[in-house]
Amino acid sequence: MRAPCRTGRALILLALPALALATITFENRWHWYIADTGRSAAQLPDGGYVTSGGTHVASGSFGVVLVRTDSLGDTLSVRHIFGLDADGGLSCRVADSGYAVLAESAGRIFVRGFGPADDSLWNYQSTWGGPVSTIIPTSDGGCLVAGRIPDTAFDMGAIKLAADGQEEWARWYDEPRMYDSWAHGAAQTRDGGFVLCGIANDYVANYMRLARLRPNGDSAWTRTYHGPVAPMLKAVTETQDSGFLAAGSEIDTLQSLDALYLLRTDSVGALLWTRQIAVPGAATRATAMQPTSDSGYIIAGTIDWGDSARAWLVKLDSNADTVWTSVLPGTGMEQAASVRQTADGGYVVAGTSDSAGGSVLLVKTDSLGFILMTGLTGHSFNVHRSSFTVSPNPCHSSTTISYSSSLLSPPSSLSLYDVTGKLVLSELRVTSCELRVTGLAAGVYLVKLDYAGGSATRKLVVE
Protein backbone atom coordinates (compact mmCIF):
# COMPACT_ATOMS: atom_id res chain seq x y z
CA MET A 1 0.00 0.00 0.00
CA ARG A 2 1.25 3.43 -0.83
CA ALA A 3 2.38 5.41 2.20
CA PRO A 4 0.38 8.55 2.92
CA CYS A 5 1.78 12.05 2.75
CA ARG A 6 0.49 13.79 5.87
CA THR A 7 0.21 17.47 5.11
CA GLY A 8 -0.91 18.67 8.52
CA ARG A 9 -1.09 17.49 12.13
CA ALA A 10 -1.66 19.18 15.46
CA LEU A 11 -2.62 18.26 18.99
CA ILE A 12 -3.19 19.84 22.39
CA LEU A 13 -4.56 18.69 25.74
CA LEU A 14 -6.56 21.36 27.56
CA ALA A 15 -6.74 20.68 31.30
CA LEU A 16 -10.07 21.24 33.03
CA PRO A 17 -9.24 20.90 36.75
CA ALA A 18 -12.79 21.31 37.98
CA LEU A 19 -13.90 18.30 35.96
CA ALA A 20 -10.67 16.28 36.19
CA LEU A 21 -10.94 15.72 32.45
CA ALA A 22 -9.04 16.76 29.35
CA THR A 23 -10.33 18.02 26.04
CA ILE A 24 -8.28 16.75 23.12
CA THR A 25 -8.21 18.76 19.90
CA PHE A 26 -6.29 17.98 16.73
CA GLU A 27 -6.33 18.32 12.97
CA ASN A 28 -5.09 15.84 10.37
CA ARG A 29 -4.70 16.02 6.61
CA TRP A 30 -3.89 12.85 4.67
CA HIS A 31 -3.01 12.47 0.99
CA TRP A 32 -2.32 9.24 -0.92
CA TYR A 33 -3.05 9.40 -4.63
CA ILE A 34 -4.11 12.01 -7.22
CA ALA A 35 -6.86 13.42 -5.02
CA ASP A 36 -8.52 12.32 -1.79
CA THR A 37 -11.86 13.50 -0.39
CA GLY A 38 -13.13 13.23 3.18
CA ARG A 39 -16.82 12.35 3.51
CA SER A 40 -17.63 11.00 7.00
CA ALA A 41 -16.24 10.65 10.52
CA ALA A 42 -17.45 9.05 13.76
CA GLN A 43 -16.14 8.31 17.23
CA LEU A 44 -15.67 4.66 18.16
CA PRO A 45 -16.44 3.07 21.55
CA ASP A 46 -12.72 2.99 22.44
CA GLY A 47 -12.54 6.78 22.06
CA GLY A 48 -10.78 6.66 18.71
CA TYR A 49 -12.18 7.73 15.36
CA VAL A 50 -12.94 6.32 11.94
CA THR A 51 -13.05 8.59 8.92
CA SER A 52 -13.78 7.66 5.32
CA GLY A 53 -13.74 9.21 1.89
CA GLY A 54 -13.08 8.76 -1.78
CA THR A 55 -9.76 8.53 -3.58
CA HIS A 56 -8.81 9.16 -7.21
CA VAL A 57 -6.15 6.51 -7.77
CA ALA A 58 -5.31 7.05 -11.44
CA SER A 59 -6.97 8.16 -14.64
CA GLY A 60 -10.40 6.50 -14.60
CA SER A 61 -9.63 4.57 -11.40
CA PHE A 62 -11.31 5.34 -8.07
CA GLY A 63 -11.76 3.84 -4.66
CA VAL A 64 -12.61 4.36 -1.00
CA VAL A 65 -10.22 5.07 1.87
CA LEU A 66 -10.80 4.25 5.54
CA VAL A 67 -8.66 5.67 8.33
CA ARG A 68 -8.71 4.57 11.99
CA THR A 69 -7.10 6.79 14.64
CA ASP A 70 -6.71 6.65 18.38
CA SER A 71 -8.26 9.25 20.68
CA LEU A 72 -5.31 11.61 20.10
CA GLY A 73 -5.79 11.54 16.33
CA ASP A 74 -2.73 9.37 15.68
CA THR A 75 -3.18 7.00 12.72
CA LEU A 76 -3.72 3.33 13.59
CA SER A 77 -4.65 1.94 10.19
CA VAL A 78 -5.34 2.99 6.61
CA ARG A 79 -7.34 0.77 4.28
CA HIS A 80 -8.17 1.25 0.61
CA ILE A 81 -10.89 -0.42 -1.45
CA PHE A 82 -10.13 -0.07 -5.16
CA GLY A 83 -12.17 -0.62 -8.32
CA LEU A 84 -15.20 1.46 -7.32
CA ASP A 85 -16.95 4.36 -9.02
CA ALA A 86 -16.10 7.99 -8.25
CA ASP A 87 -17.57 9.94 -5.31
CA GLY A 88 -17.79 7.07 -2.81
CA GLY A 89 -16.70 6.94 0.80
CA LEU A 90 -19.69 7.88 2.96
CA SER A 91 -19.85 5.80 6.13
CA CYS A 92 -21.76 5.35 9.40
CA ARG A 93 -21.59 3.33 12.60
CA VAL A 94 -23.54 0.05 12.67
CA ALA A 95 -24.06 -2.81 15.12
CA ASP A 96 -21.37 -4.36 17.36
CA SER A 97 -19.07 -1.33 17.17
CA GLY A 98 -18.64 -1.76 13.42
CA TYR A 99 -19.32 0.56 10.53
CA ALA A 100 -20.60 0.47 6.95
CA VAL A 101 -19.11 2.24 3.92
CA LEU A 102 -21.17 3.36 0.92
CA ALA A 103 -20.02 3.61 -2.70
CA GLU A 104 -21.10 2.63 -6.19
CA SER A 105 -19.64 -0.21 -8.21
CA ALA A 106 -20.29 -0.51 -11.96
CA GLY A 107 -23.24 1.84 -11.53
CA ARG A 108 -24.80 -0.25 -8.73
CA ILE A 109 -25.12 0.75 -5.07
CA PHE A 110 -22.41 -0.94 -3.00
CA VAL A 111 -22.16 -1.13 0.80
CA ARG A 112 -19.51 -3.01 2.77
CA GLY A 113 -19.84 -3.75 6.48
CA PHE A 114 -16.82 -3.87 8.79
CA GLY A 115 -16.33 -5.15 12.32
CA PRO A 116 -14.59 -3.28 15.14
CA ALA A 117 -11.20 -4.68 14.08
CA ASP A 118 -11.60 -3.44 10.47
CA ASP A 119 -12.46 -6.95 9.26
CA SER A 120 -14.91 -7.16 6.33
CA LEU A 121 -18.15 -8.78 7.44
CA TRP A 122 -20.55 -8.41 4.53
CA ASN A 123 -21.16 -6.83 1.12
CA TYR A 124 -24.37 -5.49 -0.35
CA GLN A 125 -24.87 -4.61 -4.00
CA SER A 126 -28.21 -3.48 -5.42
CA THR A 127 -29.74 -5.01 -8.53
CA TRP A 128 -30.28 -1.55 -10.01
CA GLY A 129 -28.40 1.70 -10.07
CA GLY A 130 -28.94 5.13 -8.65
CA PRO A 131 -26.70 7.91 -7.36
CA VAL A 132 -26.65 7.90 -3.55
CA SER A 133 -25.95 10.83 -1.23
CA THR A 134 -26.24 9.64 2.36
CA ILE A 135 -25.99 6.65 4.69
CA ILE A 136 -27.20 6.81 8.32
CA PRO A 137 -27.20 4.31 11.19
CA THR A 138 -30.53 2.85 12.29
CA SER A 139 -31.63 1.98 15.82
CA ASP A 140 -31.60 -1.77 15.08
CA GLY A 141 -27.90 -1.78 14.15
CA GLY A 142 -28.42 -1.56 10.41
CA CYS A 143 -28.29 1.42 8.07
CA LEU A 144 -30.37 3.42 5.62
CA VAL A 145 -29.09 4.53 2.21
CA ALA A 146 -30.80 7.34 0.33
CA GLY A 147 -30.40 9.26 -2.91
CA ARG A 148 -32.07 9.16 -6.32
CA ILE A 149 -33.16 5.53 -6.43
CA PRO A 150 -33.56 3.89 -8.89
CA ASP A 151 -31.80 5.96 -11.51
CA THR A 152 -34.55 5.23 -14.05
CA ALA A 153 -37.28 6.74 -11.84
CA PHE A 154 -35.61 10.10 -11.03
CA ASP A 155 -37.24 10.03 -7.59
CA MET A 156 -36.18 10.25 -3.98
CA GLY A 157 -35.46 6.72 -2.84
CA ALA A 158 -34.15 4.76 0.14
CA ILE A 159 -32.87 1.28 0.96
CA LYS A 160 -32.99 -0.21 4.46
CA LEU A 161 -30.24 -2.74 5.29
CA ALA A 162 -30.22 -5.00 8.36
CA ALA A 163 -27.19 -5.34 10.63
CA ASP A 164 -25.96 -8.29 8.51
CA GLY A 165 -26.25 -6.33 5.24
CA GLN A 166 -29.46 -7.99 4.06
CA GLU A 167 -31.90 -5.72 2.22
CA GLU A 168 -35.10 -5.29 4.25
CA TRP A 169 -36.86 -2.94 1.86
CA ALA A 170 -36.28 -0.52 -0.99
CA ARG A 171 -38.71 2.30 -1.82
CA TRP A 172 -38.87 5.38 -3.99
CA TYR A 173 -41.27 8.25 -3.54
CA ASP A 174 -42.90 9.75 -6.59
CA GLU A 175 -43.93 13.40 -6.64
CA PRO A 176 -46.27 13.64 -9.68
CA ARG A 177 -45.61 17.32 -10.31
CA MET A 178 -41.84 16.84 -10.38
CA TYR A 179 -39.68 15.19 -13.01
CA ASP A 180 -36.55 14.92 -10.86
CA SER A 181 -36.14 14.52 -7.10
CA TRP A 182 -33.07 13.59 -5.08
CA ALA A 183 -32.54 12.86 -1.36
CA HIS A 184 -29.35 14.46 -0.03
CA GLY A 185 -29.93 13.94 3.69
CA ALA A 186 -31.79 11.57 5.99
CA ALA A 187 -32.49 10.98 9.68
CA GLN A 188 -34.29 8.38 11.75
CA THR A 189 -37.27 9.56 13.78
CA ARG A 190 -38.21 8.57 17.32
CA ASP A 191 -41.02 6.28 16.12
CA GLY A 192 -38.56 4.19 14.08
CA GLY A 193 -39.44 5.84 10.77
CA PHE A 194 -37.32 8.21 8.70
CA VAL A 195 -37.30 11.63 7.07
CA LEU A 196 -35.54 12.49 3.80
CA CYS A 197 -34.59 15.95 2.56
CA GLY A 198 -33.38 17.15 -0.80
CA ILE A 199 -34.37 18.90 -3.99
CA ALA A 200 -36.93 18.56 -6.77
CA ASN A 201 -37.50 20.15 -10.18
CA ASP A 202 -40.56 20.61 -12.39
CA TYR A 203 -38.81 21.87 -15.59
CA VAL A 204 -39.55 25.45 -14.49
CA ALA A 205 -38.12 25.94 -11.01
CA ASN A 206 -36.15 24.23 -8.26
CA TYR A 207 -37.86 23.21 -5.03
CA MET A 208 -36.91 21.83 -1.63
CA ARG A 209 -38.52 18.56 -0.59
CA LEU A 210 -39.14 16.55 2.58
CA ALA A 211 -40.45 12.98 2.63
CA ARG A 212 -41.66 11.32 5.84
CA LEU A 213 -41.35 7.51 5.90
CA ARG A 214 -42.93 4.90 8.14
CA PRO A 215 -40.66 2.24 9.71
CA ASN A 216 -41.44 -0.19 6.85
CA GLY A 217 -40.49 2.43 4.24
CA ASP A 218 -44.03 3.35 3.21
CA SER A 219 -44.65 7.04 2.58
CA ALA A 220 -46.42 8.96 5.35
CA TRP A 221 -46.32 12.28 3.49
CA THR A 222 -44.16 14.34 1.15
CA ARG A 223 -43.91 18.12 0.88
CA THR A 224 -42.27 20.54 -1.53
CA TYR A 225 -41.30 24.12 -0.67
CA HIS A 226 -40.72 27.00 -3.05
CA GLY A 227 -39.26 30.45 -2.51
CA PRO A 228 -35.47 30.57 -2.19
CA VAL A 229 -33.23 31.07 -5.21
CA ALA A 230 -31.21 27.94 -6.07
CA PRO A 231 -32.26 26.10 -2.90
CA MET A 232 -30.50 23.01 -1.61
CA LEU A 233 -31.31 20.93 1.49
CA LYS A 234 -28.40 18.74 2.63
CA ALA A 235 -29.32 17.62 6.16
CA VAL A 236 -32.42 17.11 8.29
CA THR A 237 -33.25 16.08 11.85
CA GLU A 238 -36.33 15.64 14.01
CA THR A 239 -36.96 18.35 16.59
CA GLN A 240 -38.07 17.93 20.20
CA ASP A 241 -41.71 18.64 19.30
CA SER A 242 -41.67 15.99 16.51
CA GLY A 243 -41.29 18.59 13.79
CA PHE A 244 -38.30 18.83 11.47
CA LEU A 245 -35.33 21.13 10.94
CA ALA A 246 -33.50 21.02 7.60
CA ALA A 247 -30.32 22.85 6.63
CA GLY A 248 -28.66 23.68 3.32
CA SER A 249 -28.12 26.81 1.27
CA GLU A 250 -29.80 29.37 -0.94
CA ILE A 251 -28.58 32.36 -2.96
CA ASP A 252 -28.43 35.53 -0.90
CA THR A 253 -29.69 37.92 -3.57
CA LEU A 254 -28.20 40.96 -1.79
CA GLN A 255 -24.68 39.56 -2.20
CA SER A 256 -25.24 37.09 -5.06
CA LEU A 257 -23.54 34.51 -2.84
CA ASP A 258 -24.69 31.30 -1.17
CA ALA A 259 -26.04 31.67 2.36
CA LEU A 260 -26.69 28.96 4.92
CA TYR A 261 -30.41 28.25 4.96
CA LEU A 262 -32.67 26.72 7.64
CA LEU A 263 -36.21 25.40 7.16
CA ARG A 264 -38.45 24.46 10.11
CA THR A 265 -41.71 22.49 9.86
CA ASP A 266 -44.26 20.94 12.17
CA SER A 267 -44.80 17.18 12.47
CA VAL A 268 -46.73 16.92 9.18
CA GLY A 269 -44.35 19.08 7.17
CA ALA A 270 -46.25 22.39 7.30
CA LEU A 271 -43.76 25.25 7.02
CA LEU A 272 -43.25 27.21 10.26
CA TRP A 273 -40.35 29.47 9.30
CA THR A 274 -37.17 29.83 7.28
CA ARG A 275 -33.91 31.59 8.22
CA GLN A 276 -30.70 32.60 6.57
CA ILE A 277 -27.25 32.79 8.16
CA ALA A 278 -25.15 35.03 5.93
CA VAL A 279 -21.70 36.53 6.45
CA PRO A 280 -20.82 39.78 4.62
CA GLY A 281 -18.38 39.12 1.80
CA ALA A 282 -18.46 35.35 2.11
CA ALA A 283 -20.56 32.46 0.87
CA THR A 284 -21.84 30.07 3.55
CA ARG A 285 -23.22 26.57 3.08
CA ALA A 286 -24.45 23.78 5.35
CA THR A 287 -23.56 20.20 4.43
CA ALA A 288 -24.22 18.26 7.66
CA MET A 289 -26.27 18.64 10.85
CA GLN A 290 -26.71 16.59 14.02
CA PRO A 291 -28.68 17.06 17.25
CA THR A 292 -26.54 17.73 20.33
CA SER A 293 -26.77 16.59 23.95
CA ASP A 294 -28.17 19.98 25.10
CA SER A 295 -31.21 19.62 22.78
CA GLY A 296 -29.61 21.95 20.25
CA TYR A 297 -27.95 21.28 16.90
CA ILE A 298 -24.50 21.42 15.35
CA ILE A 299 -24.11 22.32 11.66
CA ALA A 300 -20.98 21.80 9.58
CA GLY A 301 -20.32 23.39 6.21
CA THR A 302 -18.15 25.92 4.46
CA ILE A 303 -17.40 29.63 4.66
CA ASP A 304 -15.95 30.76 1.33
CA TRP A 305 -14.33 34.14 0.60
CA GLY A 306 -13.59 33.29 -3.04
CA ASP A 307 -9.81 33.12 -2.78
CA SER A 308 -9.93 30.86 0.28
CA ALA A 309 -12.44 28.76 2.16
CA ARG A 310 -12.63 27.02 5.54
CA ALA A 311 -14.61 24.33 7.28
CA TRP A 312 -17.26 26.11 9.35
CA LEU A 313 -19.27 25.09 12.42
CA VAL A 314 -22.52 26.70 13.58
CA LYS A 315 -24.04 25.81 16.96
CA LEU A 316 -27.78 26.31 17.37
CA ASP A 317 -29.89 26.13 20.52
CA SER A 318 -33.16 24.21 20.81
CA ASN A 319 -35.01 27.03 19.04
CA ALA A 320 -32.46 26.95 16.18
CA ASP A 321 -31.08 30.35 17.21
CA THR A 322 -27.35 30.78 16.66
CA VAL A 323 -25.23 30.27 19.81
CA TRP A 324 -21.79 30.54 18.17
CA THR A 325 -19.95 29.99 14.92
CA SER A 326 -16.39 28.76 14.47
CA VAL A 327 -14.09 28.99 11.45
CA LEU A 328 -11.69 26.05 11.61
CA PRO A 329 -8.04 26.84 10.85
CA GLY A 330 -6.51 25.71 7.58
CA THR A 331 -4.97 26.75 4.30
CA GLY A 332 -6.27 27.23 0.77
CA MET A 333 -9.72 25.84 0.11
CA GLU A 334 -11.21 23.56 2.76
CA GLN A 335 -14.74 22.38 3.48
CA ALA A 336 -16.59 20.17 5.98
CA ALA A 337 -18.77 17.25 4.95
CA SER A 338 -19.62 15.57 8.26
CA VAL A 339 -19.90 16.45 11.96
CA ARG A 340 -20.61 14.43 15.11
CA GLN A 341 -20.60 15.35 18.77
CA THR A 342 -18.01 13.41 20.77
CA ALA A 343 -18.13 11.90 24.24
CA ASP A 344 -16.29 14.90 25.78
CA GLY A 345 -18.78 17.38 24.32
CA GLY A 346 -16.54 18.42 21.44
CA TYR A 347 -17.01 17.73 17.75
CA VAL A 348 -15.31 15.57 15.13
CA VAL A 349 -15.42 16.95 11.59
CA ALA A 350 -14.54 15.27 8.30
CA GLY A 351 -14.00 17.14 5.07
CA THR A 352 -11.61 17.95 2.26
CA SER A 353 -8.55 20.18 1.95
CA ASP A 354 -7.01 21.20 -1.35
CA SER A 355 -3.53 20.70 0.14
CA ALA A 356 -1.35 18.34 -1.96
CA GLY A 357 -4.02 18.38 -4.68
CA GLY A 358 -6.78 16.99 -2.46
CA SER A 359 -6.54 15.58 1.07
CA VAL A 360 -8.82 13.99 3.63
CA LEU A 361 -9.42 16.42 6.50
CA LEU A 362 -10.17 15.21 10.04
CA VAL A 363 -10.59 17.76 12.85
CA LYS A 364 -11.46 17.34 16.53
CA THR A 365 -12.59 20.52 18.30
CA ASP A 366 -13.58 21.41 21.84
CA SER A 367 -17.18 22.12 22.86
CA LEU A 368 -17.00 25.67 21.45
CA GLY A 369 -15.62 24.61 18.07
CA PHE A 370 -12.03 25.66 18.76
CA ILE A 371 -8.79 23.89 17.97
CA LEU A 372 -6.62 25.21 20.75
CA MET A 373 -3.31 24.54 19.03
CA THR A 374 -2.78 24.27 15.29
CA GLY A 375 0.15 23.67 13.00
CA LEU A 376 0.41 22.88 9.30
CA THR A 377 4.02 21.83 8.99
CA GLY A 378 3.67 18.10 9.60
CA HIS A 379 5.03 18.34 13.17
CA SER A 380 3.30 17.39 16.41
CA PHE A 381 3.18 19.75 19.39
CA ASN A 382 2.17 19.48 23.03
CA VAL A 383 1.96 23.00 24.46
CA HIS A 384 0.93 23.81 28.02
CA ARG A 385 -1.82 26.37 28.45
CA SER A 386 0.54 28.51 30.55
CA SER A 387 2.85 29.07 27.57
CA PHE A 388 0.29 31.31 25.84
CA THR A 389 -2.21 33.19 28.01
CA VAL A 390 -4.86 35.87 27.62
CA SER A 391 -5.83 37.50 30.92
CA PRO A 392 -8.18 38.81 32.12
CA ASN A 393 -10.68 36.84 30.07
CA PRO A 394 -13.52 37.88 29.77
CA CYS A 395 -12.38 41.50 29.62
CA HIS A 396 -13.98 44.94 29.31
CA SER A 397 -11.41 47.46 28.09
CA SER A 398 -8.08 45.64 27.82
CA THR A 399 -6.38 42.29 28.32
CA THR A 400 -2.76 41.15 28.53
CA ILE A 401 -1.42 38.60 26.05
CA SER A 402 1.64 36.72 27.29
CA TYR A 403 3.82 34.10 25.67
CA SER A 404 6.66 32.17 27.27
CA SER A 405 8.03 28.73 26.48
CA SER A 406 11.48 27.19 26.43
CA LEU A 407 10.24 24.55 24.02
CA LEU A 408 9.12 26.75 21.12
CA SER A 409 10.64 29.48 19.02
CA PRO A 410 9.66 33.10 19.75
CA PRO A 411 6.39 34.18 18.13
CA SER A 412 6.49 35.80 14.73
CA SER A 413 3.14 37.57 15.07
CA LEU A 414 -0.10 37.85 17.01
CA SER A 415 -3.46 38.46 15.33
CA LEU A 416 -7.04 38.98 16.49
CA TYR A 417 -10.02 37.54 14.56
CA ASP A 418 -13.75 37.65 15.11
CA VAL A 419 -15.73 34.39 15.03
CA THR A 420 -16.49 34.73 11.31
CA GLY A 421 -12.77 34.65 10.58
CA LYS A 422 -12.44 38.37 9.84
CA LEU A 423 -9.06 39.83 10.81
CA VAL A 424 -9.50 42.62 13.40
CA LEU A 425 -5.88 43.33 14.47
CA SER A 426 -2.57 41.95 13.25
CA GLU A 427 1.22 42.22 13.41
CA LEU A 428 1.57 42.40 17.20
CA ARG A 429 5.26 41.37 17.15
CA VAL A 430 5.99 41.15 20.90
CA THR A 431 6.11 38.38 23.50
CA SER A 432 3.84 40.24 25.92
CA CYS A 433 1.48 43.08 25.23
CA GLU A 434 -1.61 44.87 26.46
CA LEU A 435 -4.43 44.55 23.96
CA ARG A 436 -7.00 47.34 24.21
CA VAL A 437 -10.47 46.18 23.17
CA THR A 438 -12.30 49.49 23.64
CA GLY A 439 -14.50 49.99 20.60
CA LEU A 440 -14.80 46.28 19.80
CA ALA A 441 -18.29 44.83 19.81
CA ALA A 442 -19.06 42.46 22.66
CA GLY A 443 -18.61 38.84 21.67
CA VAL A 444 -16.13 36.03 21.14
CA TYR A 445 -12.80 36.61 19.39
CA LEU A 446 -9.76 34.45 18.56
CA VAL A 447 -6.23 35.49 19.45
CA LYS A 448 -3.86 33.65 17.11
CA LEU A 449 -0.15 33.19 17.76
CA ASP A 450 1.99 32.33 14.70
CA TYR A 451 5.52 31.12 15.34
CA ALA A 452 8.16 29.01 13.64
CA GLY A 453 6.61 25.57 13.24
CA GLY A 454 2.93 26.27 13.79
CA SER A 455 0.30 28.40 15.45
CA ALA A 456 -1.91 28.42 18.52
CA THR A 457 -5.22 30.11 19.28
CA ARG A 458 -6.96 31.30 22.41
CA LYS A 459 -10.55 32.38 22.83
CA LEU A 460 -11.11 35.94 24.07
CA VAL A 461 -14.50 37.10 25.32
CA VAL A 462 -15.16 40.86 25.21
CA GLU A 463 -18.00 42.02 27.45
Q: Write out the CATH superfamily name of the largest domain.
A: TolB, C-terminal domain
User: Which CATH architecture of the largest domain is right?
Assistant: 6 Propeller
Oligomer: single chain
Largest sheet: 5 strands, antiparallel
- The CATH class of the largest domain is Mainly Beta
Task: Compute the number of strand runs.
Answer: 37
> Which regions contain 5 or more consecutive residues with pLDDT less than 50?
1-22, 373-386
Helical content class: under 10%
The name of the CATH topology of the largest domain is: Neuraminidase
Q: Percent of residues in beta strands?
A: over 45%
Radius of gyration: 22 Å
Q: Strand order within the widest sheet? A: 1-2-29-28-27
Given the structure, what is the number of helices?
A: 0
Mean pLDDT: 86
The global form is globular
First-residue to last-residue Cα separation: 53 Å
SSE class: mainly beta
| Count of spatially separate domains | 2
